[in-house]
Target: Restriction endonuclease type IV Mrr domain-containing protein
Amino acid sequence: MGRMSESVPVRCPACRREHVYAAPSYPCVCGAPVAPPLDRRGVATVVNHRVWDEDWIAVRCAACGRLDEWPYPELGCPCGTLLRIPVAGEEAPTEPPASPAAGAAKTGTDVRGRPAFQPVTIRTARDAVTAAALYLRWLGYRDIRRADQRPPSGIGLAARGILAQVDPTVRPASLRDVECLWLTAMTESTDCVYFSLAGYADDARARADALRVPLFVLDLTGTPQPMNELADQLDATGG
Model:
C-alpha cells in the first residue's frame, strides 16, 4: 500500500498564525499514492527566492520501492508568506528505472497497466510547471529538470529526448514562441512540446503543424489537452 499523507501543525514564522497542513499525494507509476513524509517536529521556513532544485524532493513509494522526485510541500499563508514544510528522512535521488508502461492512454488503465494521469489544480504559474512536469513523467520521460536555455516567454523544461516550454501567461502563444522553441530543440537535436494556459494564435498553430511541434493547453484542473494531431499522437503513445 502506498504512503498516505498525514496532517501536521504548521506555524507561520511571519504572522504566527497556526495552520493544519496535509501534503498532496501523487500517483506512482505502479498506481499507489505517494506523499512526502512530513516532519512533525520541524519548523516551516519562508520561501523568498525560487531555486528549481529546491522545489523538488525525492520520495520513495512504499508500495513498489521506486524513488522519484515530486514537488516539495508548500503552504501559502493568508498573510502573504509562502512556507516550505519540513520533510522527514529526505533521500538522495537516483536514476529511476524506465517505466514499463510508458505510452499508455491518459484516461483509465490500458493493457500495459499504467494508471490514469492524475492532474494538479493550477492556481499559480508554479502549478502550471508542476502539471507539465508530471504529465511529461506520465508520458515516460525521466530526469525532468529546468532547461539550460531560458525561452523568450514562460519556463523551459528538459528531459531525456524532449524539450518543453510551459507558458503560464494569459496571452495566447505566438508564432515566434513556437518557432523559438523549435529552433532551440533543433540545436540540441531533441524533440519539443509546448504547453500553454491561454491557447495559441492561429498562425502559431499552423506553424506548429508544419514544424511538427505538439501543442497542449493546460486547463485549470492541470490536465493537458491536445490541440493538434501531433499532441494527440504523443498523448496516445508516450515518450
